[in-house]
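Thread: Newbie trying to understand structure tokens

Hi all, I'm a second-year student working on a class project, and my supervisor (Dr. K.) asked me to get a predicted structure for one chain before our next meeting. I've only ever worked with sequences, so writing a 3D structure as a token string is new to me. If someone could post the tokens and maybe explain what I'm looking at, I'd be very grateful. Here's the chain:
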Amino acid sequence: MKIKALFLLCGALFLSQSQIANASDYGISIDNIAKPSAHVLEQRQAFVKARDAIKKGDNSLAISYKKGILKDYPLNVWLDYYMLSARPQVSKFNDVLKFINSKQHKELSSLLENKYIDFLAREGQFKKVNVLLPTKPYLDNEAIYNYQKSKLCRFYEAKLHLQQANEEALTYAQSLFVSLKSYPSNCAPLINILDSKGYITDKLLLQKFENAFIKRGYEDTTKDLAKQLENSSFKDRVAMQMDLYDDPKAIFSKDFKATSNNAKIAVLAFKRYINLSSEDARFKLKTFEKKFKPSSVDLLSIKQLIAETCLYKSRPYSDVEWVDKNLPAVGWTDELKEQRIRRAIWYSQWKIVYQMIDHMPSTFQEQINWRYWKGHAAKHLGYKKQGMEILREVAKDRSFFGFLAAQELNLPYAYNHLKLDEKASFSNLLKNNLAVQRFFELEAINDENSIFEWREIAKSSSDEDAMLMAQWALQTGKVRYAIESVIAANRWDALSYRFPIAYLEIYKDNSKNYNVALSFLYGVSRQESMLNADIRSPVGAIGLMQIMPTTAKVIARKNKWQYKSSRELTNPETNVKFGSYYLRSLLDRFDNNRILAAAGYNAGPNRASFWLSKDGKHRNAAQYIETIPFLETRKYVQNVILYDAMYYYLLTGRKQHLLFKNELNYKY
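---
Reply by user tm_fold:
Sure, no problem. This is what the structure looks like when written as tokens:
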């Protein structure tokens, strides 16, 4: 299907001269969104006036519009939301509850609920917070985002104020305080409760101090905590520890006595020594044991810390052997086991891979990459039937390792492509879906809140309605909306919208000019920016292919291209040109190996080379990818290679092998 660029502005559609396509597919055409009637134009003007009146505090004017000209207008629910959310008041609580319980708009209800949870907590209205948040929203042990952590803090804060909290609340609050990781500002009141109720004891401060003391990069935190403990019963101990902060190996000098009082100080200093110079510290372990005779618990924690560094990818096999020999099985944490499994994969120790995966939590074992490796380990150990059964199941998954298993077993790839029915009608959608009507009205008045209406469509509509809207997004150049329709409702099978084909002529031209596969260019761009031409990363990368301005300067200078400022990188033509050139240079450097080129694009070409074998032994592509030490790069490479295969399928309708012959035969 060709893609057409149509841009909707104030209720009218305009053809873009830069893209050409057929907009009549699925009945999506200019006629569908006809020129608004005079009455609709009046309603839009009235809605804007009502919205602005609410912002100024004049709800009575908004209500008069709502009861008058806006009586049958689709955006009335937004006026209700604005009146409740602008200048929150405790007196509005029952109306807020009524709005939420009406379930007329899930997205606005969620926004309103979160806004009032924070407002009511700040006002000390914890009974009302408890009404909005009666049960714990997330598990404490989940890897949750900051906005989720914020809500969990509000839940515990209310429970503590209402004296309904158990030890769980205190434990969570204390763990937040002791952790060196930052927490959201809405968690500060929970920490303040700990302090006001006397739960932030000198002992807890000492625990946080010791956590910071042993690590790199926490000098200011360590010194601040040491100052807070100056008048505590731990002041002498803390002072002695700070004397060792810059030179922890001073514990081995004759001046530092191996007394029972000094034992704990020595343990912490030695842990800091490990983090500053792990190899030197490991060779000093026997000396440390002999001088200070640490407890079995302290010795185990020391060996665990050494093991973490010994299992880094860059460390020699002798370090792995040290871990196997010196750390008893009872002391293996899940994190250490995962590190050891990856080292076992690198060294083809299939018995260790097979056995250790079985000793991991079920959530770990269920991950597709570990299922793949369990199947491979089983095959290598002679359990061919079991291995084949596992790999056949893995091959049903639409993922890098799922496709890799399918390629190895010569099975079909699990594209599972959810396609839009050819009979789907955009005209019917516009008539029957209120969320769609609201979205187009917000778009017509250039209201940025249209994104929330888009999410409402994605989450609350049928697959057909949501995909029709995603198709509209593609045809109007709103690529971000198309992808958002997939993400918001986990509609992962809607491949045409999960992997949109945008700026096709630009990508085709650069694919041809730099001899980089079109699908690979799209795969990198999809992973880098979700095809957002204007996006800027926290580190300054810009646009579709996330080009760093410094890299752009080097490329422009080398090719004598005109390049004046980083603003030019938001232009898709410039951005894709620079990205294609750089990707070509990486492919040239790595013998057309997309795996190494992708790793180099994300983490730098020197790192991609550094991670290759240095012992002369052959590793395959999967072993290289699985043992990339950076989680971000490990996932990045898998995604780019998978997305390449997905885009090839969408662009051509044909299957492309996940990995090419040269990549399979490469000696990693």
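A couple of things are worth pointing out once you decode it. The chain has a mean pLDDT of 92. Strands lie at 6-9, 12-15. Feel free to ask follow-ups in this thread.
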